[in-house]
Amino acid sequence: PDLNSYLAAGAIPLIVEYLAASPSRKVTRMIISTLRNLAVAEDHRVLNEMLTAGIMRIIDMFNAANAIKQLADPDVEADYRVLQDIVAKNFRELTSFERYTSEVESGALR
After folding, report:
1. Exposed, middle or buried, 93 (CB in 10 Å: 0-12/13-18/19+)?
2. pLDDT tens readout for residues 62-106
3. Is 57 helix (H, G, I), strand (E, B) or coil?
């Protein structure tokens, strides 16, 4: 699927939400890999979706808990670092209007 499919389906906020609540290491690995693959496109819409969904909070939480090291998987650690670097490079506080616009465009308006 292309990026537009993820955006139209509202999948990115769900994927980020699942990462925060992931009960299993395997699911965490899969989600990190998926988010990394989406982030490398460096499409502003995708990154806005991730930021609006709270990816920075989750990254901070993972860093504080040293969660990625505990997975003991070099591939996942590499994916996580790429994801973290791209998100950090593109991070900025979204205004309320930008957050609203992003949610309207993705169909995830709450």
Report:
1. exposed
2. 999 999 999 899 999 999 999 999 998 887 655 666 767 777 776
3. helix
**Closest Cα to residue 46, out of 77, 12, 92?**
12
Decide: 77 and 71 in contact? Cβ < 8 Å.
Answer: yes
| Cβ-contact 16, 62 below 8 angstroms | no
Distance CA 48, CA 79 (A): 19
For residue 35, give the nearest of 70, 6, 73, 72 by alpha carbon: 6
Would the pTM of this model clear 0.90, i.e. be above it? no
How long is the chain?
Answer: 110
* Distance separating alpha carbons of residues 50 and 14, to the nearest angstrom: 10
Q: Which residues contact 101 (CB under 8 A, 6 or more apart)?
A: none
> Looking up tokens 């389906």, which residue turns up?
9
| pLDDT tens, position by position, 47-73 | 989 998 999 999 999 999 999 999 899
Q: Residue 95 and residue 79: Cα distance in Å, rounded?
A: 28
